[in-house]
């Protein structure tokens, strides 16, 4: 058994297949992959890694298995999947996932090719088939819901861990109550009777963390800058998309600085000389049809829009970044709870959840970013190209250099 001191869960005990997997290269690589991508440029203490998070998921999975009285081979398989569930992440976690997916066809939970070598040897030595672990990580089957589902331990850990490391209080949830309330009913993972409010608390935490951390405007700006720099690196053909996907954060930083087309943006990120918002448009400003078109647009179409805006504004194309947020949604809102002896979907039972679903729509933003001295020209050009007519969509951010998150930023649109 190995005992590890954790900042969130105190002492984590890793044993059996988990202890054997701990020092394999795919797991140790996660020490060099940031959990929140570029969010540390907003919250300086948000420098935790996928390795810490994976340990957290492992210990929460262990506790969930105990409460559910799952033992033997199933227990070992879920523990292994919990520790390995993030080994497919690219550098900076989710930041580059869509970019690389369009070039490789692989998401971060497609880990079949990584469950080889030393990892496969360890799994097989513990009578666990690597294919079974790949399925659990993808959320397949009854036990896969514990790793990747509406009530998974992955979500429980990252909410409290991200809140802890950013200093934002909104991700606090009652993990012990959630774990104790888990039940399998006809193969579905649900919350036991009397836990509607427990489920609501999970959704409230996620809904508040979205605008304050995950979709904070500076996080989104830096994410888009890193994506553009990586696009230029891939266009240089110095490395392939599959190679980038297996890098860690430091390796990608070096590669970006050495690629001529990527270096300017890489230096800006390293020195925190960030682009600013030229457009920050609400869902209603963009319109449902136009927002839908942009959300569904292929990367090539977004690049064409950026080029058109740049030409109209008289700036270089790399000085215009269009950032289309994913459609408003809450996967957790499909959570099932037992009420009066029957299983019900949470939105049907909770007015709080229905309100949160509406809040997700209100938090959606379309962003267009540019260097500080180009925001005015780019903003005007973007309004014309995108067909926006709401003056409030344009944000002037030229009065001060990029700064870190303040309380006034929480949920608001301050510059």
TrEMBL record:
The record's section on InterPro entries has:
dGTPase-like, HD/PDEase_dom, HD_assoc_2, HD_domain
Protein name from the UniProt record: HD family metal dependent phosphohydrolase
Single Gene Ontology MF annotation: dGTPase activity
**SUPFAM superfamilies listed in its UniProt record:** HD-domain/PDEase-like
- The reply to whether DNA-binding figures as a keyword in the UniProt entry is no
Q: Which keywords appear in this protein's UniProt record, sorted alphabetically?
A: Hydrolase
- SMART domains (UniProt xref): HDc (SM00471)
Q: Where is the HD domain?
A: 50-159
An example Gene Ontology biological process: dGTP catabolic process
């Amino acid at each position: 058994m190995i005992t590890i001191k954790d900042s969130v869960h105190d002492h984590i005990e890793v044993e059996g297949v988990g202890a054997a997997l701990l020092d394999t290269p795919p797991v140790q690589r996660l020490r060099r992959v940031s959990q929140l991508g570029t969010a540390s440029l907003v919250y300086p203490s948000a420098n935790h890694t996928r390795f810490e998070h994976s340990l957290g998921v492992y210990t929460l999975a262990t506790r969930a298995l105990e409460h559910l009285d799952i033992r033997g081979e199933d227990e070992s398989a879920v523990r292994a999947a919990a520790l390995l569930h993030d080994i497919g992440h690219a550098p900076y976690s989710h930041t580059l996932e869509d970019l690389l997916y369009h070039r490789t066809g692989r998401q971060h939970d497609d880990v079949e090719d990584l469950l080889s070598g030393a990892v496969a040897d360890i799994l097989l030595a513990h009578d666990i088939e690597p294919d079974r672990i790949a399925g659990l990580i993808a959320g397949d089957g009854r036990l896969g819901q514990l790793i990747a589902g509406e009530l998974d331990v992955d979500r429980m850990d990252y909410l409290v861990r991200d809140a802890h490391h950013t200093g934002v209080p909104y991700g606090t949830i009652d993990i012990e109550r959630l774990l104790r309330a888990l039940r399998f009913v006809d193969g579905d993972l649900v919350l036991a009777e009397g836990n509607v409010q427990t489920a609501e608390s999970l959704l409230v935490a996620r809904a508040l963390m979205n605008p304050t951390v995950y979709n904070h405007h500076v996080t989104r700006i830096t994410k888009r800058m890193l994506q553009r720099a990586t696009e230029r690196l891939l266009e240089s053909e110095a490395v392939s998309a599959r190679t980038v996907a297996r890098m860690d954060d430091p390796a990608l930083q070096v590669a970006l600085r050495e690629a001529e087309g990527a270096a300017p943006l890489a230096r800006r990120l390293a020195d925190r000389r960030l682009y600013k918002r030229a457009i920050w448009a609400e869902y209603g400003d963009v319109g449902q049809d136009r927002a839908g078109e942009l959300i569904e647009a292929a990367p090539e179409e977004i690049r064409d829009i950026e080029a058109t805006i740049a030409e109209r504004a008289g700036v270089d194309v790399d000085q215009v970044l269009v950032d289309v947020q994913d459609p408003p949604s809450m996967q957790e809102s499909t959570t099932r709870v037992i009420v009066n002896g029957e299983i019900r979907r949470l939105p049907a039972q909770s007015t709080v959840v229905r309100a949160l679903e509406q809040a997700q729509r209100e938090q959606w933003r379309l962003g267009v970013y540019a260097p500080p001295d180009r925001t005015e020209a780019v903003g005007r050009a973007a309004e014309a190209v995108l067909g926006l007519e709401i003056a409030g969509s344009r944000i002037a951010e030229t009065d001060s250099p990029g700064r870190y998150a303040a309380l006034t930023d929480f949920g608001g649109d301050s510059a």
